[in-house]
Design goal:
single chain, 354 residues, alpha+beta, Aminopeptidase, 2 domains, 16-stranded mixed β-sheet, 16 strands, 33% strand, globular, Putative acetyltransferase involved in intracellular survival, acyltransferase activity, transferring groups other than amino-acyl groups
């Protein structure tokens, strides 16, 4: 008998189950992030009271057969503050699919979100491969409450073209990546006068909150940060990291990032730019901050850097010869908890990719 209840194991056991479930379906066909227990502690704020309710699971007896996870966040949509969630990690191993487990998880999450007063959950459906199950599931199971306001892709920057070519499961992309190898140069600092790049400190958070507001105020849908959530995201509680740019003695820019192993044909570290608050920086300081982040990623072994391409940054930040534009191959999916919810046009988004 199948039963929905909160996940009962450790974060490390949760990560092992989810990665194994995704590998059972996508290994060798799509890239699969190798999430860890520390990653989930960071992203899901698992030290908060009642955080176990965010970890929806289906059990057959004591056997875990499916999960869906979310984390409450504050958004602003078309100028209105909304309590909602970012969600992901719908995971059912291949041998357990076709038994309604995904539907059970979706329905249980809807009930929990309503109880918490959360108006929607935001996630993604990868459309860049025919083997991807996400878009079809959401269209079938949540078509009456789900909206796809836009598609999204990435900006990318190669850091090791040879390893990236060997890693890529798409043979055409792998060939192009390998061909680009002679033209890939390592990032470097130029050390312009009056500019200091350093790791973030706790006392920088109030300034970074202001920078977030200035950098994302133009977005149609955006995350609204408070001091606790921003400090977590920027790595002051572990896992994530951030560098700030001090220009003429004042913190005027911040980039938050993390490095995540992702399995393709091989397993390689990929650098993810999460938060890019650089609208108040001069061009020289912006370039120095971005190159400093790329250099740290490269020193950690990352083969490339990615930034979600949804318009929450000055476009000229990535309009450079060493950055490339990946196609928009993900649906941004907003699933409301109320069938009467109306989603306005959303072009520019400040959200996390998960």
């Amino acid at each position: 008998m199948l039963e929905v209840r909160p996940f009962a194991g450790t974060p490390d056991e949760l990560a092992d189950f989810i990665v194994s479930a995704w590998q059972s379906t996508y290994a060798g066909k799509m890239s699969v992030p190798q999430w860890s227990g520390d990653y989930f502690r960071w992203q899901l704020r698992l030290d908060e009271p009642d955080s176990a309710q965010r970890l929806k699971a289906v059990y057959r007896g004591e056997e875990l057969v499916g999960t869906m996870l979310y984390v409450p966040m504050t958004f602003e949509m078309a100028g209105q503050r909304v309590q909602a969630a970012q969600a992901s990690w719908l995971s059912v191993p291949a041998e357990h699919r076709g038994q309604g487990i995904g539907r059970m998880l979706h329905q249980a999450a809807q009930i929990q979100l309503r109880q918490e007063g959360l108006e929607f959950r935001l996630g993604y459906g990868y459309t860049g491969s025919k083997v991807s199950l996400g878009p079809g599931f959401w269209k079938k199971q949540a078509g009456d409450v789900s909206t796809v306001p836009r598609r999204a892709g990435f900006w990318g920057r190669l850091l090791d073209a040879g390893r990236a070519a060997a890693w890529n499961v798409n043979r055409g992309e792998a060939w192009l990546t390998g061909a680009a190898r002679p033209f890939v140069f390592q990032p470097r600092r130029r050390n312009p006068g009056g500019i200091e790049i350093r790791p973030i400190k706790a006392e920088d958070i109030p300034v970074c909150l202001d920078l977030a507001e200035r950098a994302t105020g133009h977005c149609d849908l955006r995350l609204i940060w408070n001091a606790d959530r921003l400090s977590r995201q920027l790595g002051l509680h572990g896992f994530g990291r951030a560098l700030v740019a001090v220009e003429n003695g004042v913190v005027r820019g911040c980039i938050g990032f993390h490095v995540l192993p992702i399995a393709g044909r091989t397993v390689e570290p990929i650098g993810i730019l999460d938060l890019v608050f650089v609208s108040e920086l001069s061009t020289a300081a912006r370039n120095e901050l971005l190159n400093s982040v790329l250099l740290e990623m490269h020193q950690e072994g990352a083969i490339m850097a990615l930034k979600l391409r949804t318009g929450d940054y000055p476009t000229r930040t990535f309009l450079k010869p060493d950055w490339f534009l990946k196609p928009a191959d993900m649906d941004v999916i907003i699933t409301g908890t109320d069938t009467n919810m109306t989603i306005p046009p959303l072009r520019r988004l400040h959200v996390l990719w998960r």
